[in-house]
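Dear H.,

Thanks for agreeing to be a second pair of eyes. The structure we're designing against is below in token form, covering all 325 positions.
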């Protein structure tokens, strides 16, 4: 099969095209013939070396955390799915930048009422957006929510999910005026530039932060009583904060986190539940996924280069075999 991957860490330029054997699904696994692969910040981290050196066969890793397509084969013990079914899949061990990918059956989701194109960018993004809101931030109807990286794939989905679940107000921050114009299409009450949000916000029930650094520190001071700052990324790539505990209890604030990789290992049923709930919202039309760019698999490095430079908005897909859609 054709695939894109790397055998040394570095920038996106280390990615190269290769031919690899088609994987065989093991017990409890599903082989997906890939139509689309989503592009995510986690894949950039993988390439850069945040997860360590390549550990795949012969020291070669294929990134890619979510795909859509159709089932090509079922491993032993897999029920409720059939060869040919259109599905989306979350791939906790990567492998999506390829013509075929193996996924745990628990993280394979039927595309009932959802196009493969939308499904290609939904398994990780929508599950994360739903999970960070419901699982980590414990969103309640009537809450006021601030979402950093409001124009990104998770941010744009989280804004819609928060509204669908009853948030009273949803605000966002972005890094540029161009991104602010883009983000407005997702129903935010207001969009602020990231260097000015702290002067305009207060008494927030929920803040979603994939940025870190100064943005995270400024967000803490804006929480309402029992407000929750939910962390799910480190896009700023700044040193970790060292925070005293006393201000949390003295000001009735909470700091919480969401990491889908950890949940996939320790609470896979929770991941599946979040995914199915998010997919139901997508199928019903309550939320939508905005695919802003679609590139061939051979241009995966270009997609990650744009993400590293902060030029991406919405969801970027790699079209691996779009005729399956």
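And this is the sequence the design step returned. I haven't edited it by hand at all.
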């Amino acid at each position: 099969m054709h695939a894109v991957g790397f055998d040394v860490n570095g920038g996106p330029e280390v990615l190269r095209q290769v031919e690899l054997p088609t994987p065989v699904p093991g017990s409890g696994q599903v082989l997906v013939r890939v139509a689309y692969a989503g592009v995510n910040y986690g894949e950039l981290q993988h390439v850069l070396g945040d997860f360590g050196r390549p550990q795949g066969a012969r020291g070669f890793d294929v990134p890619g955390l979510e795909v859509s397509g159709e089932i090509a084969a079922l491993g032993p013990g897999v029920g409720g799915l059939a060869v040919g079914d259109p599905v989306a899949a979350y791939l906790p061990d990567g492998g999506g930048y390829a013509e075929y990918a193996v996924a745990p059956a628990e993280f394979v989701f039927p595309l009932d009422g959802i196009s493969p194109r939308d499904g290609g960018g939904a398994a990780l993004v929508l599950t994360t957006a739903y999970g960070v809101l419901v699982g980590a931030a414990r969103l309640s109807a009537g809450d006021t929510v601030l979402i950093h990286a409001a124009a990104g794939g998770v941010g744009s989905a989280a804004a819609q999910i928060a509204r669908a679940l009853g948030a009273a107000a949803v605000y966002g921050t972005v890094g540029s005026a161009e991104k602010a114009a883009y983000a407005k299409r997702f129903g935010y009450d207001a969009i602020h530039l990231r260097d000015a949000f702290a002067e305009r916000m207060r008494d927030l029930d929920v803040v979603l932060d994939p940025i870190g650094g100064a943005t995270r520190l400024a967000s803490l001071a804006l929480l309402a009583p029992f407000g929750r700052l939910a962390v799910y990324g480190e896009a700023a790539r700044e040193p970790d904060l060292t925070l005293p505990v006393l201000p949390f209890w003295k000001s009735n604030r909470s700091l919480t986190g969401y990491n889908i990789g950890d949940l996939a290992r320790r609470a896979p049923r929770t991941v599946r539940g979040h995914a199915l709930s998010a997919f139901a919202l997508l199928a019903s039309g309550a939320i939508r996924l905005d695919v802003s760019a679609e590139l061939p698999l051979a241009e995966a490095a270009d997609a990650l280069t744009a993400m590293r430079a902060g030029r991406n908005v919405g969801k970027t897909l790699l079209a691996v075999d779009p005729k399956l859609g």
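Two observations from my side: The radius of gyration is 19 Å. The chain has a mean pLDDT of 95.

Warmly,
E.
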